[in-house]
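Exercise 7. Predict the joint structure of the components listed below.
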Amino acid sequence: MQVPAQVEYEKATSVQHALALLARYGPEAKILAGGHSLIPMMKLRLAQPEILIDINGLTDLGYISRSDDVLRIGTLTRHAQLLESELAGEYFTIMHDAERVIADPIVRNWGTVGGSLCQADPSEDLSAAFAAMKGTMVIRGPNGSREVSARDFHTGPYETVVGPSEMLTEIRLPIRSGHLRGGSGYLKVARRVGDWPVGAAGAAVWLADASGGRQSIADAGIGLTAVGATHFVAAEAEDFLRGRPADEQNLARAGEIAAEHCHPVTDQRGPADYKRHLVKELTTRVLRIAVSRARGAAS
Amino acid sequence: MTIHDSDAGANAKGSGGGAYGPVPRKEDARFVRGQGTFVDDISLPGMLHGAILRSPLAHARIVSVDATAATAHPKVMAVVTGADLAGRGLAWMPTISGDVQAVLATDKVRFQGQEVAFVVATDRYAARDALELIAVDYEPLPPMIDARTALDPGSPVVRDDLPGCTSNHVFDWTAGDKAATDAAFAAADVVVGCDMVYPRSHPAPLETCGIVADMDAVTGKLTLWSTSQAPHAHRTMYASVTGVPEHKIRIVSPDLGGGFGAKVPLYPGYLCAIVGSMITGRPVKWMEDRSENLMSTTFARDYHMHGEIAATADGKILGLRARVLADHGAFNATAQPTRFPAGFFHIFTGSYDISAAFCEVTGVFTNKAPGGVAYSCSFRVTEAVYLVERLTDMLARELAIDPAELRMRNLLRPEQFPYTCATGWQYDSGDYPRALRLALDMAGYDELRREQAQRRARGEYMGIGISFFTEGVGAGPRNQMDILGLAMADGADLRVHPTGKAVLGVSVQTQGQGHETTFAQIVAHELGLSPDDVEVVHGDTDRTPFGLGTYGSRSTPVSGAAAVIAARKVRERARVVAAAMLEVAADDLEWLDGKWRVRGDPDQARGIAEIAMAAHSTLELPDGVEGHLDASAVYNPPNLTFPFGAYICVTDVDPATGEVKVRRFIAVDDCGVRINPMIVEGQVHRGLADGIGIALMQAIVFDELGNCLGGSFMDYLLPTSMECPSPELGETVTPSPHHPIGAKGIGESATVGSPPAIVNSVVDALAPFGVVHADMPLTPANVWRAVQGRPVRPDLALS
Amino acid sequence: MKLTVTVNGTEHSAVIEPRLLLIHFLRDELGLTGSHWGCDTSNCGVCVVWLDETPVKSCTVLAAMTDGRRVTTVEGLARGGKLDPVQEGFAACHGLQCGFCTPGMMMTARWLLDLNPDPTAAQVREAISGQICRCTGYENIVRSVLWAAKHDRSDDDSRL
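Solution:
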């Protein structure tokens, strides 16, 4: 088995301590949470940080709680905890759907939500799911906290807006109540269970009762991963759906639009034409699921 | 749960009763406690760790190798380069195919991942660090990657190290009667042809290859703990290469974490560790990591095949022909009997009565890792069965005959056995139609076809795929089968202690197949003992007889037979002693219910335990018996054995995403007499999982630069518990007439038979879309592209 | 750095390099060779051990991360010399052949049964879906775990 290069190590005793260490050591320091993105890269020596700042002792950063209309997920929340959280499942079926197909149960025990989002793999399922739900990232730095939309969080493959002296501490998801009925889902095609997606789509729709007993889509969120969608979002397809009835024709059209606006790349998971086709297919299917769940939800 | 065919011939010699049966495994006691001893578990005082620097390029001249910085590393004890080995005459080593392979590259590197330098350090982390301190200057050369262009004039020549070598040609091999086959094709009503690839894959046992080498300069003894499926053969080869005489070499193959053919060849890392130990005077451990395993140890398959099948209008197959391009990688290191460079591929007429057949196989060099014969292929029978089973299905489709019915019309009949096929194999026994009928009944075939029609009407696509296979295993007769001149006979030594406990030394090497249990059962069955009374010793060349090891499902057919014969020799010696004990003539005794008994007075009896004590006692021993019962045997099999089976796979395919789900797998196997049905079933379970992986997700592919894109388990995907359904097993038993207990061997059957069943199933599902063939691996992308009519080529990287 | 970790109930202290992987610490420093390594990319799962209450892939955890915590390996499954029902189940149902993946499979099985004493076959398959076996085709592993569920002893106290 391959092994990492030499590295220094510090155990953070608090968020402030972690931030101070980041400030002291600069860009050669890396936060170590679950390590299930970072350590594999270190073993292959694709990543060679000079120092690791272990935040696993900061158990206060692992939580899923509700404050008013916000679901708050601490960055150190393990994937398994998000999957098991009844609270998260109640409002965000998409999160459970996505977590169920991320890696495997053992990796999910230790890998963290924050770690995966900050790794920013262009095929990361959670990035699409949080983008679909229009989450907000809370980033702590030496000068306090700032909030960034999940849709602006990623700036490129393996790159986020988190600066070298900052760390992600929380992800917030808006819980919409009121007269809208919401439903969400996530669909992934992979070469095998546990593999990175060939293509995946997550969607949330909020239905409003329009005149004449029809329902229209008040709002939609569509997240795509592994297909080069800008900010993991199918924004044009979302715009198309807003205000339109949630019928099969519109859902299919939204799938087509999503496929037109992504930039899949041919690799060993599949050729670009296939991936583009998958976007259309999966977006349509997951919208169907989201709509069906919205219709079944209590308003 | 296995379904037994009620008419199955259970009367063969040695079948049933006695110590045969689902005896729990003796091996399990240590493994469930985590107390197995695998090579990496071994730690010797003063042991050092080795690591290999490998080429990042597929084809390049080595301009210079500078190990200065690595040598200066405080934890590094030695650095060995190709030049150092050349000075010792060790830069090249023989392969099992009679070629040579570089131990450490000297002039050129010829595949990505080829060994270039070896570091020995005090711990494995330092050894890994030191690799980065070795500077190698490469001059890249155009790589030879696409096997289909390997023989084109002007293609880069891989083996310019071989005197006079100006092309990438390795061998040509033909079998069958070309003229008769051409005539059969000319007379046929229908001919169906197809190009199909059996992609390169890799056996990928969970334990990688490795060794602990301990050269004791004082005693001159070289002791190796090694992941070897053939420790004696390795010992003989090491003796010829290292200069250490064979009687001073001891190889211990401890517990092996799977083999599947990956641990048959000699690898450069083994020799590097030996040299490392010679240089440092300390034991040296080398364990490869997973990427080394996938990129440099023996791959499997990589056959580009063109097959044609000729038949009458009502589906009687008249002829079969095949042209094969075999990609052998950079060195010819295939592990099969030397006289058969294409292995047993010419068993490709399969299970059918086909009187005219002809095949030609051409082997070529490419800039890829060497190997080719591995991964439960039964020496290329996987490729042969895939070809004929795909062609049979395509013929059925062309003629609009149900594929089960078409097979029934062509399967060999029981009265035709022993059957000599068009390419010379003499199949020993079989009732093929019964096995197929059983599989069809278990599957509920007619009901499945009805369901398929109903689903199609709803726009849902399920497929039913059949595969009927015959393999030839248990190599083999010494006048035909050798590896580099070493005959493929294998032996057994049986010693019976005074208290009647037995120790059986065998030359084969388990890697999980349960030999410690099944071989104990064999001996116990012959001698009226409990399997607990028989200890099986294997894997230590100092304690076991010579043999060529375990692969090609040969353990039961060959060493198993040797064990039977040795046990029967013991039993005959025991007869003589028992006669002396009972004061009767030896002929007055018969072997009944586990004892020698006086004919007509069965209570006058002696069992092996008391006979053994008597043999060691002061009893006056008659001629023919010295003071013990011990015996040994070397078994020269008169023929291969021919296990067979009928498999049916049901899949559900989503043509819009290309996803394939294997819903059911029905497998009827006939491996002759089953010594331990529980172990037999376990072997079948594994092979079915292999098939799912091979058919749906596994492939080692290369890009145009020769970068190996299957170098980790992130891209070389193996099936998990989620892809493998609960198998439905059935059995028939047609004993092998020439094997002492009628057993045939089972280890590779399911890996041979399952991939065509799955591919046939998926193609069947996609028939409404006009798909006639689709190459493995049937990943979602490949399935979708097949549906679109634009299939991808599976051996090269997608681009 | 100085590491203090309790492994199978015994506290160990060692000075280690921060980069030392947990699997190597267990095997090479402590001699607990029952857990194995088999890949480079956290895919195969032969390295599964428990870190506190949960199974983790110990090839992807630094030993340093276990400081102050508890680790349980296959060597800690048996209690007072008595095999765990999971171990008995694997032996009874031929759930192993070469034995290389077995410790990891058993650790996951034990964890599953502690959380879900009566799992379905599908749930067992899902629980082990991140761990590869090359020998059994998984069927007998599933049967072994279901056997253990049926024969589990209710008087087992926490193994931690």
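Discussion. DSSP finds twelve helices and 13 strands in chain A.
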